[in-house]
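Practice problem. Given the sequence and the SMILES for zinc ion, write out the predicted structure.
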Amino acid sequence: MVKETDVFNGVPLNKKAWTFTIPSSMPLFGQMSTLRLTETLEKQYETRESVCNELSLNKVYNRKIHVKYLLRKREILSSSYQSLDSSQPWLVFWQVNSMRLLDEQDHDKDAMIAKLESCRSKITGGYGGGPGQMAHLATTYAAVMALTVLGVKVPHKEQLVSFVMGRMGTDGSFTMHHMGETDVRGVYCAVSVLSVTGELSKHNFVKTVEWIKSCQSYEGGYGSRPRDEAHAGYTFCAVVSLRILTDDWIEDPSLLHWISKRQCSDELGFNGRTNKLVDVCYSYWAGALSKVYNILGVEELNRYILACQDLNGGGFMDKPGKGCDLYHTNYGLCGFFIDDIDVRYGLMSE
Ligand SMILES: [Zn+2]
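Answer key:
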């Protein structure tokens, strides 16, 4: 049952006459005659309203305009991409993978391979964020996945594996780079790279499996490391790493419960954490897990993803009203084609 309540009665809110619905599943709020409108709460209601408006437009998928968007990004990137100077293999991966998901031939294959090669450290064997930058597990993952999409053999595999395994600590966790931070992204990047290059079975990950399990929070999802807040990105990394290492999807009711709460009932897309805003990139990180456990509202998710399209310039945005970018375009498409991809890596299934 849904109750219509003027919850801001008594709170100085002359700028807007807010009324909204409170689900009966929130009895605590339902009983309150007043609710303090915090900045984050206000953002939630504004987002819900703008998403619902956009959903009502029933946008139709436009493949061609997204291809045009990607081709335009190859010519020139706006100044907002400057902050991604140390993520150049990621830019390559998001572009080539999006093209593949859109079923479009990539005519810049050689240039993309050359770009990735320029980021490869000839000393350590890993890939840095750009030419001459320190090798990092995340950019190494992006480079190897991009090469996989392009159907190219990874060069100097032995040296690459030595870089990846060199990140492993005595407790089975992985650091992102030499002397870097430890988190579950490191494990996912490492085991994914070893898996797609056929090197996984040559190493022992018994401690790694235990370390990943220690990252599960009281909520049921996984945090970046033990005792951190549950987050959909880290939960994806943890659960998929366990799948790669053990060949099984972990069965755990508290995990399923947490994942099931990530798909928003009004906005229809996913959020990444409890009480956070919907965002199209979680269509993949959380959508993939929901699909694995058969709890995905596919039609609802597709409606949200389509609402995040820019039908004038192409590309996908985090949420209606935001600007499009390559990251959200790739993961929006991964969510849209969730039935066609290998959910472990976000790559189109062969
Ligand atoms: Zn996002």
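Check your answer against the key. The beta strands are 2-5, 20-23, 341-342, 347-348.
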